[in-house]
């Protein structure tokens, strides 16, 4: 804690020990290590004080393929307890979703939203629809 005398006037000093490395201040971690540390912190809070909704924007952008798969598993597990919305460009994270939404633009520069229910795809039913 930056300001123990007045906790509401300071932030948190977070330290993490990435696999195979020494304990470091979060400011000196790589982008992927910061992302994993931040997610670990958020999901630790989720276990003690649950929230019904989480929205993440490209949390996997700085992760290597192995860690993207691990994050996808973690998100899938926590999605049983809360609604999780993620903006991502990576298939490995998308594969953990129940539903996908995409935006594409036609030749007239008009955007369209496309949705895919992955549960229906896995069941062999028609899944893509335009909203």
UniProtKB/TrEMBL annotation:
Residues of the RecF/RecN/SMC N-terminal domain: 28-111
Pfam families assigned: SMC_N
InterPro entries, per the entry: P-loop_NTPase, RecF/RecN/SMC_N
Top-level taxonomic group: Archaea
Designated name of the protein: RecF/RecN/SMC N-terminal domain-containing protein
Organism this protein belongs to: candidate division MSBL1 archaeon SCGC-AAA382A03
Lineage, top ranks: Archaea, Methanobacteriati, Methanobacteriota, candidate division MSBL1
